[in-house]
Structure formats: C-alpha cells, structure tokens
Amino acid sequence: MIVLSISSVSADDLQTKYAGEVSGDVNVVTVNPWTTSGSLTYDIPSEAKDIRSADVYVNVYGGSAKNTYGANANVSLKTANGENQIANESLWIEEGSSDGTIYAVNDHINKCYSDYQMHYDITNSIKGLNGSSITIKVDTFKMENKSFDGKIKLIALILAYDDGDSDVINYWVDATQKWTKTNVTTIFNTEKLSNINGANLINVALSSGDGSFKVNGEIIGDPIVHDSGNYYQYNSWDISDKMKKGQNTELLSMNVGSGSYASLKNVLSVLKVNPIKANVSLATEYADTCYAGTNNTISINVISDKKEKYSIELLADGNVVNSTEIELDGENQTILFLTDPTVREVDDSTVNGADNVKVNYMVNVRFNDVVVSSANKTVPVLYNGNLGKDLSYPSSGFASFENISFTGDIVIDIKNESSYKSGSTGTIEIFNVNLGKDSTIVKGFIYVPYNWFNGKKYVENETMFNVTFNNQTICPAGFHRDQSNLGNYGKYGYGVVVYDVTNSIKNGNNTFVLNKINPTPTIYPSTLIYMYNTTGSEVIKNIYIINGADLLSNTSNNAGRVVQANSNININSKDILDAKLYVFASGAQTNEGNIIINNNVFENVWNGTSKTTDLFATDITDIVKDSNDIRFVATGSTILALQQFIVTTKDAPIKTSVKPTKLSTTYDSGKYFNIKVLDNHKKSVKGLKLKLKVFTGKRYANYYVTTGSNGVASFKKASKLSIGTHKVEITTNNKNYVVKKTISYIKVYKAKTIVKAPKITVKFKKSKYFKVNVKNKATKKAVKNIAVKLKVFTGKKYKIYKIKTNKYGTAYLKTKYLKVGSHKVIVYSGNSKYSIGAKSSIKVRW
User: Which superkingdom heads the taxonomic lineage of this protein's source (predicted)?
Assistant: First the structure.
C-alpha cells in the first residue's frame, strides 16, 4: 500500500470539472448502497453509436475527518467482454479537516471532510458495447491499524454519447466535493450559448438533509425527479426558464438545516442544455430557378421542437429582402411563403443555356434574435416563358397579319385529336370545301401548331416542314414560336407555322401533306380557314387577323401572378351590324383558361385535351371598339395561345348608276349641271354627297353637291364657270355607296346681251352723260360691274373710252370734253364673258 501525504489542492487540479457536446444524450445514473458492498448496473442505449465519455464516481464514507480512520476498496467492471478489476484503492490520507477543505489522495481520489471520492474513466472499456449491460461493483474492507466504517454513499456513472444525427446537447460536469454550512456556488460556463431550448440540472448531495437551490438568482422550486437515501439527495430540475442567453449559469446551493451539525455537501452537478432543434428548407417556384422580370415567392418549410414565436427572414445575395414572424407548435412542419420583391432585368443573360447570373437565397430561422437554423441555395436567373411573352427575351407578342374584306362568310375547319402526331414523320389531312356556284374564294390559310421541338439537337424555324397543298409546294406565310425557358427542356419549342393556300384551294377535297425534316416536333391538329365572296350579298364582312404563339402555364406560380398573353386588334367599328371574336389554342384542357376582351371576362372557355386544337368564338357586338384589348388568361397547366380574329359585318355598299346631264350654256345663264343617281333597284338615291372634279384645262377645282329626294344633285355654279369646255369627274367619299367614276362635260359660251345706247345731243362743255345699258339676253337681268368699251370718232379719228356698268347695268361717259361736232360711237365688250355690240352717236353744239 502506498500512502500519500499532500497538502490541500484546488478541485480544478483534480480535473473534477469538464464539459462537452454530443448529439445523443448524457445519462446520469446513481445508486446509494450505504453498505460496504454495492453495485450499479446500466443498460447502454442501442443508439449510443459513439460513446464519447464514460465516467464513474464512487464516494465512500471514511468514518471521520481524522486520519485514524481508513479503508481499502476494490472497483470492478463487468461488461459483455467479461469482468475486470479496475482499481484497488487505499482510502487514507495523513491530513484532514472538518471545514470542507479538499485533499488529494492521488490523481483520481480526493477527500473532503470524512468522504473519499474516486473517479474512473471507463470510456475505452465500453466503446462499441451499445445495446448491452455493464455493472460497476465496489467493495470496501478494513485497512490495517485503522478504524473502519467504509459505507458506500454513491456509485455514479455519467455516460455521454453520439447517436449519429445532427442534434446538439451541450453539457457541463462538476464532480467537486463542496461542503458548506451556509452555501456554495457552482458556475457553468454557458456564456457562449445563445440558442437555448431546454436545460436540465442534476445535483447529487451527500447530506443528511436536502438543501435549497437557486439558478441565476431565482429559486428553482420542486424537482421533476427527487430521490433520497442515507446521506443521499438526488434532484433533477427543468431550468429552461432560468437560463440567460450569453451568460454563465450560476447554481447556488444553500444549507437549510438547523443545528450545529447541519451541513450540505454537493458531490456531483451536471447541466445539460439542448439548443432549439429547428430545421428549415427552401424551394424556389420552379426547381432551382429565380425568375427574371418579376418578383419571386420562396416556399419555406420549417419545424422546431420548441413551441414559440420565431422570426423567419429571407435573404438574397446576403441582403434581407423579406421577413415575418410565425408561431411554431413544436411538433409539426409549417409551410410559409416569403416574396423577394426584387425585379431582375430580362435580358440575353436570362435565356436558358446562356451564362446566367446566379442568386443565392438563404432562409434564417431566428429565436430571440439568434439563428437556430438556416438553409440556402444558389440558383440561376431565368425568364419564365410560361408567364407570357411580355416577360420573355426577346419580348414579342401577337402581330397583325391580314385585314380582309369579303361578302360571303368565313369557314373554319379544325382537325380532331386523331390528327395529333407525336412520333410520325408527318401528316396527311383532307379538307373538304363546299361552295355554291355564286361564291368564290377570297383567301385561305392553314395553321399548323406544334410542341416539343428539340431545340438542343435541331434548328427550329419556318422551313422545318416540307408542305404541299393539292400537290403544289407551299411556302410559309408566317412563323411564331415560344419556349418555357425552364429546366432541362426549357429550350424545347412550341409554336405555329402559317401557310397561304389561297391560290391552291378548290371546291371538293383538298389534300394537305406535311413532312418533317427532323424527327421533331410533335404536331397538334391543324386548321383550315377560308373566306369567300357571294354574288348579290347585301353585307360585307371584314376579318382582322393577328398571329402569334405564346406558351402559358399557371404552374410553379407561388406568387399568384395572372398568367396571360396580351394582344390588341384594331378595327373599323363604324356602322357595324355585328362583331365576333375568334380565339384559338392548342392543349386547351377543360376549364383551364379565361378570355378577357375590353375588360369583359369569359370564364372557363376551353373544353379540349392536351392533344387538341380548340376554338373559342363569341359575339362581341356590344363591347367591340376600334382598339380591342384581349387577354388570354391561363388558369391551369400548359396551354398554347394561338391566332385571334375579329370578324365584323356591315351593310354592303349600295351600287349606283350615275346619269349626269351634258350642259351647254351661256355664261351666267343660271342653268344647272344636274346628276341623277339611282340604286341597283332603279330607285332614287337621296342625300348622297357627290364630289365633282371640274377641270379648266389641266387645272381643276373640287365641288360637292348632294342629291335631293328625287335623286338629283345640281351644280348651280355651272354657268359661272369660265368660257370654254370643262371636264367633270363625278365620285363620292361615302363608303356605303359604290359610285363608279363618271365623266361628263360643261360647255360655257359668252353671254349674249341686249344693249341700249341712245343717241344724244349736248352743249359744248356742259356736264352731260352718254348712257349704255346692258342686260343678259338669257336672263333679261342687268349685267353689272362689267367693262364696256366705247370707240368715239371725231372725223376719221377716234378715241377709246372704258366705262363700267353699275348695279343697274348702266355705264356713263361724260361728254363735256368732246369737241363740237358729230361723234360716231361704237359700243363693244370689255369683258371676255359677254358679247356686247351697238352703234350710236353724240352731237355736240354751241
């Protein structure tokens, strides 16, 4: 036997304190034999896959603090591998006291007052023995020449293990013998812990009576487990509500006994703290994709083992973009959605297969401002082609194709689901046309929609099909495509090819043959559309066509966006009798879409399958405008929005016959140029405004006249035209009437006149007048304001005077300047529009 005699030392020197972290648990098992022989049997949990530490503590009552008492002890361990003695101890030391001083016997035994406490690390002896039992046996016996008591107060095992999951349990062990008549303090270094869910404090005191305990200044209260024996008190408390984030945890143990011998001695204190076990995951709307051109709503799944209120925050590239508070029940998974409001630009980098910009999304779960769980993923930024072409790159929508007028009707022939061709090399379709003898084709088109073009292997364009119609090769008249842009199949194309078959279509059966150049794509049922004229029709129809292809889908849309293709059709709505809207789609499954025109909603308009081409047609007479906004709304799975028409009906322009007079007249005769207008029923056309283009040589002037109740329009200014022949072109700007350009002539001659120029005799240098009066011979009205010329002779010589008629048609010449004698006067016209001629005389005398 080796006897050690050393001075008192600190508990830390004896390594009675330690801490650790495990994923499984920390089990504390104790027995209080109070005899000289005792044992502890323990079943190692099967889930203890990795035993991180296993420490045995044995406390033996020596009988007295004095060195006159001593004992020997044997400690053995029995496992599945057999039984081995692990220690043969001599429990005696020269020094001792009754004031709580701790004395080291050796490196694993110390003495406090009258008790010896032994420590054994048995970790290596039981590793790999999970699921089996072990027994620790202790026997004490008399030491030679010493008084002996040797009762075993405590056999304890503290076993810490990992179970292979991601849980975390932090623990602290203080196996210091702490004797007091007042109180002692145990400090657990928990200041670095911020995430605290539950905390379990176990304390073993080897005293005749129990103490009172405080944690962080607060009385603990009743334990959840209490056991007492001979000088043995075991307590286990839930102190979760006493823990302070970022602070050490202080256990104050207080002696509450009375009497001179009352004391309290702690020998084992264990604190176990498990953090909040939370798990969070995140998912973008479409697998691992951030949408460009719109916000993004992230789906978050979170669960926690602590019923509490948590803060959930969403980060994009390290910046918090949204957050919320949520109550978790501590048991069930909760799904919530947070929206990243950032709208990232749609450009060439957002195309599937390009060098896409990446976004890192992270979700933090916070409790008391501490992150208790987080998840993140880095995803590319792509435009979502299923949301409509407004959010695609390049952005393109429906385009105006044709505006066509016809007098018959429109015929639409859509092939059924049996024409859906997924694996074949092409298709042959028969379209039957049945027109009456009075009808002729105006225009005809075939639309071939398709899907699932493998753009990764082949070139997708308008020449991907070889097409004949009635054995004539047909070239495309239009090509439109779209793609989802998402995932592995994001570049697979959906679209439509348009063929103009106007020159090949015929009455009877028409054969359409399409051959694929490549094994791809799949072909939806095709559509023949044609318009025709009918002789004698009293109406005229106009079709306004826009073409396009927009792939839509309301899936992967956590944000609840309205998924739609936007378009506009401009028409002339004046004087229409009715209007009808035609909207086409492929893959239009039952009740998976709405059509909105000019804010009028038509719900659940489709009734097809994923393999059909369908038509929605409706009367829009009461809501049509010159500019019509159309929204093709997708409410379900994949649908391909296609061509759209508006067809209007108006009264056909009335055919007329125009019968103008041929007018020959003298100037200002007051005669009219009359035009008679009759309709195709030989009835007079009233109120039709005609345009007269009246030429004078190469120059012309426009005049407008309107027919009266008798169908006659009169050009009242005809005789006022200049002298000569005038060509007249007769037309109208009224679209409701057909007026073929009609040509006639107006001839205007000089006006004949009645001239009176009475002879007069006057005195020399007296103020008298020679009068000339002019009247229009045709109208007998005075001709006013025209020039009249007088050739006045004096002998053989003459002088010409120019005078002007007044409102009475009379012109005056003063005679006071004429010489004495007889003067012959010849009167003639000074105006090109009038023929004037007369002879007279003036006699001047003294």
Answer: Archaea
Q: How far is CA 577 from the centre of its chain?
A: 39
CB 112, CB 103: distance < 8 Å: yes
Assess whether 799 and 663 both reside in one domain.
no
Six-digit token string for 406: 């016809």
The one-letter amino acid at 230: N
Domain that holds residue 237: 16-274
**In this structure, is residue 143 part of a structural domain?**
yes
Structure confidence by residue, pLDDT tens digits, 461-477 = 999 999 999 999 999 99
Residue after which a domain boundary falls, among 226, 246, 274:
274
Percent of the chain at pLDDT exceeding 90: 90
Phi, psi of 839 (to 5 degrees): -125, 145
Tokens (6 digits) for 677: 């207008």
315-327 pLDDT, tens digit per residue, is: 999 999 999 999 9
Confidence of residue 736 (pLDDT cuts 50, 70, 90): confident
Please state the separation of Cα 687 from the chain's center in Å.
56
> Tell me, what DSSP letter sits at residue 707?
-
| Closest CA relative to residue 53, chosen from 201, 188, 137, 173 | 173
Strand partners, 684: 678
Query: Would residue 471 be called left, alpha or beta, if left means φ above 0 and alpha means ψ between -120 and 50 degrees?
Result: left
722 DSSP assignment: P
Neighbours of 472 (CB within 10 A): 10
User: Are residues 730 and 786 located together in one domain of the fold?
Assistant: no
Same domain, 494 and 569: yes
| Residue 3 counted as domain residue | no
Q: Are residues 691 and 633 in the same domain?
A: no
Mapping DSSP to helix (H, G, I), strand (E, B) and coil, where does residue 719 land?
helix
Q: Are residues 173 and 187 in the same domain?
A: yes
Q: By three-state DSSP, how is residue 118 classified?
A: strand
* 3-class SS string, 36-53: CEEEEEEECCCCCCEEEE
Q: Would you say residue 55 lies in a domain?
A: yes
Could you count the other beta carbons within 10 Å of the beta carbon of residue 529? 22
| Claim to verify: residue 130 and residue 57 sit in the same structural domain | yes
Domain end marker among 734, 749, 764: 749
Going by C-alpha positions, the residue among 615, 679, 621 that lies closest to residue 649 is 621
Tell me, yes or no, whether 313 and 432 share the same domain.
Answer: no
CATH number at residue 369: 2.60.40.10
Burial of 464 (0-12, 13-18, 19+ CB in 10 A): buried
Q: 494: domain CATH number?
A: 2.60.120.1200
pTM of whole model > 0.70? yes
Walk across the sheet containing 296-304 and list its strands.
Answer: 278-283, 296-304, 334-340
The two structure tokens encoding residue 212: 């009172």
- In the sheet that holds 218-219, the strands lie side by side as 183-188, 249-254, 212-215, 218-219
pLDDT at 680 over 90: no
pLDDT in tens, 534-547: 998 989 999 999 99
How many structural domains compose the chain? 5
Specify if 7 maps to a domain. no
Could you give the 3-state DSSP secondary structure of residue 419?
helix
326 shares a domain with 251: no
Distance CA 99, CA 96 (A): 9
Nearest CA-CA partner of 760 in 771, 750, 751: 771
CA 465 – CA 453 distance, rounded (Å): 12
From first CA to last CA, the distance across the chain in angstroms is 194
> Has residue 215 got a pLDDT over 60?
yes
- C-beta atoms surrounding 671 within 10 Å: 19
**Are 668 and 751 contacting, i.e. CB atoms less than 8 angstroms apart?**
yes
More confident residue, 193 or 552: 552
CA distances 753 to 179, 441, 717, 780, 785, Å, are 155, 64, 20, 8, 14
